[in-house]
Amino acid sequence: MAKSTAGFRCAECGWQTPKWTGRCGECQAWGTVEETAVPRLVRAGIRAAGYGGTSTAGGSGARLGGGPVSTAAMPIGKVDAAAARARPTGLDELDRVLGGGLVPGVVLLLAGEPGVGKSTLLLEAGALAAAQGPVLYITGEESAAQVRLRADRIGAVHENLYLAAETDLDAVITHISSVSPRMLIIDSVQTIAAADVDGVPGGITQVREVAAALTAAAKDRAMATILVGHVTKDGSVAGPRTLEHLVDVVLHFEGDRHSRLRMVRAVKNRYGPTDEVGCFDLGEYGLIGLADPSGLFLSRHREPVPGTCVTVTLEGRRPLLAEVQALVGASILEVPRRATSGLDAARVGMVLAVLQRRAEVKLGKQDVYVATVGGVRLTEPSVDLAVALALASSTANLPVPPGVIAIGEVGLAGEVRNVAGVPRRITEAARMGYRRAIVPPGSAGMTGGDGVEVVEVEDIREALAAALRG
């Protein structure tokens, strides 16, 4: 006999406790312990399973006899793997991140900030996938007419693309049974509610129940299912952490609302890589895949301008050229300003300190502004050297010569440290027409002879001499 008792569970890690606490005893997170129903097995002569107990002699009802199985076990070599092969969505950049496309029965969670373009992306993907079979698009945030207007604008109308505005889980299941879709899109999972489950839509209990039911339907019908998820103010997926464990793929859709560039990253992928990134250009008529986005992050100058330096960053396995711009000027304030855009402010502050102490670049009474071009965000340590050269170039009013790139991490002792993927970075720079690379020591032997002059530098002083005087 099974009965439920009131208990409490951590929404982040699943830790359970009979009493409420403000802080989780396992992951130490605050405010994540909420009341839930904890099932408890009570049998005469049997200890609760999972607590080290075993059944007593003669205890009838224990789960020792087993039960029916769905399919018989077979040697792994005889298992048909054709059913798990990915099917392309029609969006090349999305397929790149997924590892070739969507596997039948996959459950995918797409998360992103409001207004970044999640619905537009999935509407385009649904219209393209509808050419291969029925696609069901469930919208819980907009009316069907609003979605139709967007579909007309971006050209995502197809006779096999079915649309329904629903917020009830039972109604969604009925639509699935009626349409029998090849792909299901739920926009968004936080708006769907189960009538027989306590809690408000978007709450932990509701999201867990809705996601579990949709996952069961996806696996039973071999139906690719995409769930749109909201994010919190710190960028993580809203709702219980078990939601990310429950699905097969977790994608993050990123982009600055003031920029047209959008990127899709895989955080979790059971069927493909997690080090790929897809790039899109968001315009008036929808999303366009960018197979070669490097040109977006470079500015065009008739003559070399002081305070600019080009680097090569790795987004997943894809090398991208990006330009760092710096402006240094005398401050009229008692405390000089330090402003950054598209870069980690802490790392820029560290580079400033290294330049002032190790290279004797006077920046103490100067206002400093450092930014990237095209709205790209550079968080890799490999951009440190380009930041340092741009700052020194602006301070000395000497431009970095055209055709020069800088790659390397700068340490607090002023040394230039090696970074991963130098050959790929230099090959991409050569393809874009750059002919001189300032790199950490030991990098020259890793290059493949792309016609690029490789200049190795040990420390920041050598880098400044190579870039501004060489």
Describe the protein.
- The structure is a single chain.
- Helix content is 23%, strand content 26%.
- It has 470 residues and is an alpha/beta fold.
- It folds into 3 domains: 2-41; 85-291, 3-Layer(aba) Sandwich (Rossmann fold); 296-468, 2-Layer Sandwich (Ribosomal Protein S5, domain 2), CATH 3.30.230.10.
- The strands form 5 sheets. A 9-stranded mixed beta sheet has the order 6-5-7-8-4-9-10-11-12, sandwiched between helices.
- The longest helix is centred in the middle third of the chain and has 18 residues, at 204-221.
- It is elongated and about 75 Å long.
- The termini are far apart.
- 37% of the residues are buried.
- Mean pLDDT is 87; it is low at 1-5 and 38-60.
In short:
The chain has 470 residues and is of the alpha/beta class. It has helices at 92-98, 118-129, 144-154, 169-179, 204-221, 242-246, 345-358, 384-396, 422-431, 460-468, and strands at 2-10, 16-17, 33-41, 107-112, 135-139, 161-165, 183-187, 224-229, 249-254, 261-269, 277-283, 286-289, 308-315, 318-330, 338-341, 366-372, 404-406, 409-410, 416-417, 436-439, 453-456.
> What number of structural domains do the residues give?
3
Contiguous helical run count: 10
Derived structural class: alpha/beta
* Biggest β-sheet: strands ordered side by side in the sheet: 6-5-7-8-4-9-10-11-12
Low-confidence stretches: 1-5, 38-60
**Number of strand elements:** 21
